[in-house]
Amino acid sequence: MKKWTVILEIFLKEGIFDPQGKTVKDALHNLGFKEVEEVRIGKVLKIDILGENKEEIISKVKKMSEIFLANPVTEDFVIRVEE
Amino acid sequence: MKKWTVILEIFLKEGIFDPQGKTVKDALHNLGFKEVEEVRIGKVLKIDILGENKEEIISKVKKMSEIFLANPVTEDFVIRVEE
């Protein structure tokens, strides 16, 4: 089996207030980065995983996200396989 | 000026023990995902920012990361501009 590296990004759903992101945006403005319009903060997981092909890997990481890693009520996730 | 979305991923440097990642890996094994070899957990920021071109945007986000968002002693970061 081949080893794959998967990046899984988990953010609060659009429309759910992200106070941590707001705080960072305000701090960036205070530091002079006024061109920043919005900041959202999430978790990112780098997962090394064994598998036969890309489709199998994506399907497994999707399952992990749905049952354990992300909260489907409040969070969205994006899966990216690094080549 | 154009609006850009930048994804900034911040991880502990390779070689620094990541106890949160270890805990998640162990939990995934207990759930049956034995093919997971390693998990590293970090922060991800989605930044909406105004600017003229991609090079300018990357340079600004790099500066923010170095002076404020990441800890250069313990963390590495990756910047990706979404098209």
From TrEMBL, chains A, B:
<dbReference type="GO" id="GO:0005737">
    <property type="term" value="C:cytoplasm"/>
</dbReference>
<keyword id="KW-0658">Purine biosynthesis</keyword>
<dbReference type="GO" id="GO:0004642">
    <property type="term" value="F:phosphoribosylformylglycinamidine synthase activity"/>
</dbReference>
<protein>
    <recommendedName>
        <fullName>Phosphoribosylformylglycinamidine synthase subunit PurS</fullName>
        <ecNumber>6.3.5.3</ecNumber>
    </recommendedName>
</protein>
<dbReference type="InterPro" id="IPR036604">
    <property type="entry name" value="PurS-like_sf"/>
</dbReference>
<dbReference type="InterPro" id="IPR003850">
    <property type="entry name" value="PurS"/>
</dbReference>
<dbReference type="GO" id="GO:0005524">
    <property type="term" value="F:ATP binding"/>
</dbReference>
<keyword id="KW-0067">ATP-binding</keyword>
<comment type="subunit">
    <text>Part of the FGAM synthase complex composed of 1 PurL, 1 PurQ and 2 PurS subunits.</text>
</comment>
<comment type="pathway">
    <text>Purine metabolism; IMP biosynthesis via de novo pathway; 5-amino-1-(5-phospho-D-ribosyl)imidazole from N(2)-formyl-N(1)-(5-phospho-D-ribosyl)glycinamide: step 1/2.</text>
</comment>
<keyword id="KW-0436">Ligase</keyword>
<keyword id="KW-0963">Cytoplasm</keyword>
<dbReference type="Pfam" id="PF02700">
    <property type="entry name" value="PurS"/>
</dbReference>
<dbReference type="GO" id="GO:0006189">
    <property type="term" value="P:'de novo' IMP biosynthetic process"/>
</dbReference>
<comment type="similarity">
    <text>Belongs to the PurS family.</text>
</comment>
<keyword id="KW-0547">Nucleotide-binding</keyword>
<comment type="function">
    <text>Part of the phosphoribosylformylglycinamidine synthase complex involved in the purines biosynthetic pathway. Catalyzes the ATP-dependent conversion of formylglycinamide ribonucleotide (FGAR) and glutamine to yield formylglycinamidine ribonucleotide (FGAM) and glutamate. The FGAM synthase complex is composed of three subunits. PurQ produces an ammonia molecule by converting glutamine to glutamate. PurL transfers the ammonia molecule to FGAR to form FGAM in an ATP-dependent manner.</text>
</comment>
